[in-house]
């Protein structure tokens, strides 16, 4: 049972990585066509509505039995995971390159490892630390990152990643008690509410009236990808650790880079292949860690 759940967790997060790789590449086109804050707000509200439908259909009893503390955590996750970082990320993405944004976003596993120790005193074995460093190096080599100037857009993306890392730590704890759909729904539903409050307060909500069919089409396409990302990631995160999950999602950065290379008609170099091999090997090292804590609560849930 445990091995099956862990395997499903890995597969779900691997799907997240594939979705993420395409998503950041396509979001770059969508976000440059409209107001980035409005773009984030529209996408999130579409995903939030779909998740609300699933929750009302499958998890109504869970919602009724939620405790005050759980409601507060869901609202907090909505603020720090579904609102603030989306506003920061899409504003940053409208300024910087998709490849750079992808690398910064997929480096979240470093912050997750640090926050896991800070919040829960989780000590990582040496083999996992080596894997994390190898994963970061593999992404840098694959994407051929050199001494590139760090612009304002990169800083906004980095700030978003910090918020998402903190959110994942809280979400992981809440996933022990609640279904993945409910936690994901809390993130996107409350996040959408906060974003639209921001849009109303800054007089940007009315800009939706001036949007074209093409702009709405980009919102629709990227909203589908975001829905897939949220569902697969939270479902996988329920059964594997946050470090494992975010490390596997790091595979999305090479996918974004590959799409960028193909779009601009550039050849895939030897260093890119070398980086890809290093990424794969590093993820295997990270996932080889024996997570006793995870196994313990999985056993408890299946008694």
Tell me briefly what this model is.
The chain contains 15 helices and no strands. The protein has 303 residues and is an all-alpha fold. Mean pLDDT is 85; it is low at 297-303.
Helix content: over 70%
Count the E strands: 0
Distance between the termini: 11 Å
Tally of contiguous helical segments? 15
Overall number of structural domains: 1
Derived structural class = mainly alpha
Mean pLDDT: 85
Element string (H = helix, E = strand): HHHHHHHHHHHHHHH
Using the CA coordinates, give the radius of gyration: 19 Å
Low-confidence stretches: 297-303
* Form type: globular
The major beta sheet can be summarized as: none
Bin the strand percentage.
Answer: under 5%
Task: Give structural notes.
There is one protein chain. This protein is mostly helical. The chain has one domain. Helix 1 packs antiparallel against helix 11, helix 2 crosses helix 11 and helix 4 runs antiparallel to helix 9. The longest helix has 30 residues. It is globular, with a radius of gyration of 19 Å.
């Amino acid at each position: 049972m445990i091995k099956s759940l862990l395997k499903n967790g890995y597969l779900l997060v691997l799907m997240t990585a594939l979705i993420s790789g395409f998503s950041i590449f396509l979001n770059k086109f969508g976000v440059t066509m409209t107001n980035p804050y409005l773009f984030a707000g529209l996408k999130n509200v579409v995903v939030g509505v779909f998740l609300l439908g699933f929750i009302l259909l499958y998890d109504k009893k869970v919602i009724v039995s939620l405790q005050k503390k759980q409601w507060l955590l869901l609202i907090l996750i909505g603020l720090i995971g579904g609102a603030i970082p989306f506003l920061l990320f899409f504003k940053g993405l409208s300024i910087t390159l998709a490849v750079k944004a992808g690398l910064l976003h997929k480096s979240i596993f470093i912050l997750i490892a640090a926050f896991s120790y800070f919040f829960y005193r989780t000590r990582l074995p040496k083999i996992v630390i080596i894997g994390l460093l190898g994963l970061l190096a593999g992404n840098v080599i694959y994407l051929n990152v050199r001494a590139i100037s760090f612009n304002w857009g990169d800083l906004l993306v980095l700030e978003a990643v910090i918020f998402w890392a903190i959110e994942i730590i809280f979400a992981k704890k809440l996933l022990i008690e609640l279904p993945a759909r409910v936690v994901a729904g809390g993130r996107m539903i409350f996040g959408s509410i906060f974003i639209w409050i921001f849009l109303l307060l800054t007089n940007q909500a009315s800009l939706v009236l001036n949007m074209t069919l093409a702009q709405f089409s980009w919102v629709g396409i990227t909203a589908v990808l975001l829905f897939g990302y949220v569902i697969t990631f939270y479902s996988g995160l329920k059964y594997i650790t946050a470090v494992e999950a975010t490390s596997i999602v790091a595979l999305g950065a090479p996918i974004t880079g590959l799409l960028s290379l193909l779009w601009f008609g550039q050849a895939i170099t030897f260093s890119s292949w070398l980086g890809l091999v290093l990424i794969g090997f590093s993820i295997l090292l990270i996932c080889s860690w024996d997570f006793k804590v995870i196994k313990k609560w999985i056993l408890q849930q299946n008694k």
